Amino acid sequence: MNMIWRNSTSCLRLGKVPQRYQSGYHPVVPLGSRILTDPAKVFEHNMWDHMEWSNEEEAAARKKVKENSAVRVLLEEQVKFEREASKYWDTFYKIHKNKFFKDRNWLLREFPEILPFDQKTEEKARESSWDHVKTSATNCFSRMDCPTVPEEKSHYVKSSGSSEGQSKTESDFSNLDSEKHKKGPMKTELFPGSNASFRILEVGCGAGNSVFPILNTLQNSPESFLYCCDFASGAVELVKSHSSYRAAQCFAFVHDVCDDGLPYPFPDGILDVILLVFVLSSVHPDRMQDVVNRLSNLLKPGGILLFRDYGRYDKTQLRFKKGHCLSENFYVRGDGTRAYFFTKGMLIYKRK
């Protein structure tokens, strides 16, 4: 499920269908026009449009969800999963490191809005996406980017970089006054990426499976800067220790988007793009709106928030067993991480 919102005089609201905005550069096969007519070509894309269920298939899915949500997790256990959410994700990354999820080489193809409108960058994006489409399509489609074990959710970062340049950059910003973060705008020399003209934030970066495909493309766009955060410090350590991490163009940090009191390492209103890929689903449904509201304050007028996440009746939801349901369409996996399953009807675009 892909969504795009633009921040003008409006904000995201959970509820109905959102407005869709598109940039001047579109994928070769635009979303909405990928119609599967030849079953032999099923792996040419990682998603297809307008796939219709039969009445029997829909009934079977509804029945399965009704069965696996019949027994709810005890309230005291639910409180524990909420309170210790970052711990479960940190454990996940300590076990799997960067081996569990594959790089999202489809990302720039599905969301070309991530990049600034520079011809060289656009050409690079096209090349990168096509270079990987054949090798990654089978994996992307079969997983639908929705693994049975937790994936790309709100993750946040910590630890020092492996090079002198990385360490120096981190130390320069480690003692920033938190009140300045809250009140912005800060003096331009005080925050990472202050000299950039185009800024991106990925929330829930995990081990960097979106970070590095984006960074590889941004090599041709030195005026761009990528922030990435996760509340699992182990995940951020993996990002910072990666050979492709460049402190000159990327700043990874630990952050919990559910904590409104935590400052960001940059002022409000400076971001062009916020990326939420399999992140919001790991947040408790009662807290999702607050997360979206806070993130919207980080965007420039005209900035966009790009969203992709689990859809209702996804195979991942149908595979849950009884006793893993926390609330309606919200589940906990065996490792303590959680997943919510959306419908388009839950998402609306509301003007302020």
From TrEMBL:
EC number(s): the record gives: 2.1.1.-
Annotated Methyltransferase type domain residues: 201-305
User: Residue ranges of region Disordered?
Assistant: 153-185
Q: Which organism is it from?
A: Cebus imitator (Panamanian white-faced capuchin)
The question of whether Cell membrane is a record keyword is answered with no
- Coding gene? METTL8
Q: Which GO terms describe its molecular function?
A: histone acetyltransferase activity; mRNA methyltransferase activity; tRNA (cytidine-3-)-methyltransferase activity
Q: Which family does it belong to?
A: Belongs to the methyltransferase superfamily. METL family.
Signal peptide range equals none
Q: What is the protein's given name?
A: tRNA N(3)-cytidine methyltransferase
Q: What are the annotated GO cellular component locations? A: cytoplasm; nucleus
What processes in GO biological process is this protein linked to?
fat cell differentiation; methylation; skeletal muscle tissue development; tRNA processing
Q: Does the entry feature the keyword S-adenosyl-L-methionine, yes or no?
A: yes
